[in-house]
Amino acid sequence: MSKQFDVVVIGGGPGGYIAAIRAAQLGFNTACIDEWKNDKGGPAPGGTCTNVGCIPSKALLQSSEHFDHAGHAFADHGISVSDLKIDIAKMIGRKDAVVKQNNDGILYLFKKNKVSFFHGRGSFVAAKDGGYEIKVAGAAEETLQAKHVIVATGSNPRQLPGAEFDESLILSNDGALRIPAVPKKLGVIGSGVIGLEMGSVWRRLGAEVTILEALPAFLGAADESVAKEAAKVFKKQNLNIELGVKISSVTKAADSVTVAYTDAKGAEQSLVVDKLIVSIGRVANTIGLNPEAVGLKLDERGMVVVDGDCKTNLPGVWAIGDVVRGPMLAHKAEEEGVAVAERIAGQHGHVNFNTVPWVIYTSPEIAWVGKTEQQLKADGVAYKAGQFPFLANGRARALGDTTGFVKFLADAKTDEILGVHIIGPMASELISEAVVAMEFKASAEDIARICHAHPSLSEATKEAALAVDKRTLNF
């Protein structure tokens, strides 16, 4: 006999578990299905983000940054470190512990909010009695029935034809997070977020890293001035990035991988590495969902087709996160999850794609929200720009990290903030002020007039806003 629910969420990643919690808060009898397993076979909700994405990568970035600082920056503070070593097994163990804390935290939140959790893979069986029958294939098979279903099944790493993941020599983001020893030479195909972050981790720990990118421009989604600054800094860090390459073949040997490619000048090249990370994007995950059983519509890329409110072609079926259109970002999925739960309750949930922040957790960090300068030029929008370097910021000097700048773009007539771009220390935290400002349609003048604590990195944000009107006070 099937178990009855008002809302069933398929997928327990950032979008799914947040949608389930919000639905329960709104009074719905809610269930969440998730199949991720820990190394003991137990439930590990949180999806790609928690298990092999955002959370573990930040743990390794933190560990590798400590190691890098100990080897290079501590001396400037009068701290001597001799015989510096890295215990990779312990570093990976700490990362795994951080992941487990997050897994357990989600299970606790389900219990606190009275969300029924089912460990297994969820799939559609049939439309039934004005709702849908869902099968849970796990240790104990279950059948659920719900009036509303939220599909939050996430995405999988895209494989390069001829270079399928074995997670030993050719690695996805999963394998890149558990390399057992520092490779002497590491290759990365793709200079996106995952490629840059994982390349940074292993470069700091001593690997010689080469990143191969097919596109002719570096960080094409970022503001050009930020991308230019980032390329300069990464080159200085000995992160070798080659643009405009065309991969010819990838060949595995017993303990190495050879990448044959044509460089930007058309010359044939060969790169031999100990490990190869392939990070060329992600594809929607609908494996085992069985959308055919109910007629759920997918597009040519395998994504669930939704409208602006995340409604699918079926009444009562919604989809959010990486499995639908829009940026594949955990926080975008969370916002959609909350909005859908509220729409089911008859409220007016809202997600503003124009104020979704983007962050790359390299050193320096890179973050932005809104339009880039090149987008404004292409759209023919009259704008003003203001920029302030961390080199002139007292807190950045004290930290010993003065790389980068804050850049404001504002409407030439109204002064409304159209975009904010940051490269430098704690950019991931500083960008939130810009997101809030843009949500409230603030002007650059508004930020320029707000009192910021001194000394703080946020003063660079204030000064960049002042720079829009060409009246910085400290530069």
From TrEMBL:
<feature type="domain" description="FAD/NAD(P)-binding">
    <location>
        <begin position="5"/>
        <end position="337"/>
    </location>
</feature>
<keyword id="KW-0560">Oxidoreductase</keyword>
<dbReference type="InterPro" id="IPR023753">
    <property type="entry name" value="FAD/NAD-binding_dom"/>
</dbReference>
<dbReference type="InterPro" id="IPR001100">
    <property type="entry name" value="Pyr_nuc-diS_OxRdtase"/>
</dbReference>
<keyword id="KW-0274">FAD</keyword>
<dbReference type="InterPro" id="IPR006258">
    <property type="entry name" value="Lipoamide_DH"/>
</dbReference>
<keyword id="KW-0285">Flavoprotein</keyword>
<protein>
    <recommendedName>
        <fullName>Dihydrolipoyl dehydrogenase</fullName>
        <ecNumber>1.8.1.4</ecNumber>
    </recommendedName>
</protein>
<dbReference type="InterPro" id="IPR050151">
    <property type="entry name" value="Class-I_Pyr_Nuc-Dis_Oxidored"/>
</dbReference>
<feature type="domain" description="Pyridine nucleotide-disulphide oxidoreductase dimerisation">
    <location>
        <begin position="356"/>
        <end position="465"/>
    </location>
</feature>
<dbReference type="InterPro" id="IPR036188">
    <property type="entry name" value="FAD/NAD-bd_sf"/>
</dbReference>
<comment type="similarity">
    <text>Belongs to the class-I pyridine nucleotide-disulfide oxidoreductase family.</text>
</comment>
<dbReference type="InterPro" id="IPR004099">
    <property type="entry name" value="Pyr_nucl-diS_OxRdtase_dimer"/>
</dbReference>
<keyword id="KW-0963">Cytoplasm</keyword>
<dbReference type="InterPro" id="IPR016156">
    <property type="entry name" value="FAD/NAD-linked_Rdtase_dimer_sf"/>
</dbReference>
<dbReference type="Pfam" id="PF07992">
    <property type="entry name" value="Pyr_redox_2"/>
</dbReference>
<dbReference type="Pfam" id="PF02852">
    <property type="entry name" value="Pyr_redox_dim"/>
</dbReference>
<keyword id="KW-0520">NAD</keyword>
<keyword id="KW-0676">Redox-active center</keyword>
